[in-house]
Amino acid sequence: MYAYVARQAIFDRAKEVIGYELLFRDGQQNCYPNIEPDEATSKLINQHHLSTELTDITDGKKAFLNFYRDTLLYRFPTSLDPLTTVIEVIETTEVDAELIRACKHLHDLGYKLALDDYDFDTRWDPLFPYVAMVKIEADERSLQQLPGLLERIRHRPVKVVVERIETNVQFEQFLALGVDYFQGYFFTRPEVMQRKDLPVMKLNLLRMIEISARHDFAMSDMNSVLERDASLAFKLLRYMNNPANYQRQKISSLLHALNYMGQIEVKKFIALLAMANLGDSKPDELLTLSLSRAKFCQAVADYRGDEQNPPKGFLIGLLSTLDAMLDLSMQDIVRRLPLADDISAALRGESGDLRRYLELAQAYEQANWTQTEHLAEALAIPADLMAVKYQQAIQWADELKNTAI
Q1: For 161-214, what is each residue's pLDDT tens digit?
Q2: Which has the closest alpha carbon to 298: 379, 354, 343?
């Protein structure tokens, strides 16, 4: 498993994830790690192993990988599966006859190539016969020059990806221009922040979250919520019996779960169920992000020996996307939810250990390696171990989402 790797989702026009860009700390400019020429043969022998690791990280979707000049010239991308890999040519790469031959060779082998941080310069034109995608920045210049680019590639099988989409307004702007794919954290932002009344169903789900965050579990309170919607009880049991959680005994009721799994695990499942149903109209990736943050923040809390009842590390990660789920400000949500003071403070962005857990998860998501080291040091935890925990959290989230939702 790669020690340090982050993933960032790439969405289609319907906000469905089509792949993930993978960013490696041990490679220049987050590129696929360099391989010395004399290691090429052994890497080729291990190509199935490499591809399997990458698809584990990407949940079986396409892996977008940055390659710099030398790795392209030595054909190192050929150690990966062309059906699951998109080769990104980074913007600092010199375009010459040698590079063009390498790109043509990779294209002829069936690999899809993308021009990363495309700047509309004509020096890239010789590569267009071999390129499947161009990636541009979400800035004013791109808005102005995009129509001309789309006209130029109208008769070519070239898709446009816009990177660093940070707001839903930006998403809508580029969507209207005909862009094919979108990358950025726009999906974690509330679409329309306004005061609004929540439907009864979502109020019930928030009530479930509030119950899961208490120190003492109130069976009668939980049953009163489940009685209002029988489908929630069914979904809760389905979550608890999910193969991703390796239960050795089938859970048949909430009481059975309490006796067999204990309060803390049951609280986690109740909160998971609530979050999954709160975001029923949102991109699936938003729930995946919530799940991975929950698992990762729980791992940090476990390592530091935090009290686990209620499971605050798990909850701070899970609830960190509530504002995007409900299209409300986090301040408004926290006022409606009677959570523990430290959980509420962390969700509002106030400093403290729980907030640092969440910030560490976000630093890994954004491949901000300097920040991961700084926060790991502040929390007195080993950064290398947390990098592994982050990858494990991603895979757990993918498996849980795919088998239980």
Answers
A1: 999 999 999 999 999 999 999 999 988 887 755 555 566 667 777 877 887 888
A2: 354
- The residues of the chain that CATH labels 1.10.3210.10 are 200-404
- DSSP 8-class letter at 76: G
In CATH, which of 3.30.1120.10, 3.30.70.20, 3.20.20.450, 3.40.50.1010 is domain 5-188? 3.20.20.450
* Sequence-ordered alpha helix ranges (H) in 60-199: 69-73, 97-108, 140-152, 168-177
Residue 53, amino acid: E
Please state, in angstroms and rounded to a whole number, the distance separating the CA atoms of residues 225 and 216: 17
Q: What is the mean pLDDT of the chain?
A: 83
Place domain 200-404 in its CATH homologous superfamily: Hypothetical protein af1432 (1.10.3210.10)
What average pLDDT score do residues 261-279 get?
79
Greatest Cα pair distance, the chain, in angstroms, is: 73
| Dihedral of alpha carbons 67, 70, 73, 74, sign | negative
Q: For residue 402, what are its two tokens? A: 């795919």
Nearest to 251 by CA among 276, 264, 269, 274: 269
| pLDDT for position 230 | 64
What number of other Cβ atoms are within 10 A of residue 257's Cβ? 22
pTM: 0.83
How many CB atoms within 10 Å of residue 189? Answer: 19
**CB 206, CB 337: distance < 8 Å:** yes
The answer to whether the CB of 223 falls within 8 A of the CB of 254 is yes
Determine the 3-state secondary structure of 37 from DSSP. helix
Residue 44 pLDDT: 35
Residues of the chain with CATH 3.20.20.450: 5-188
Summarised one tens digit per residue, pLDDT across range 138-171 is 988 888 999 998 888 888 889 999 999 999 999 9
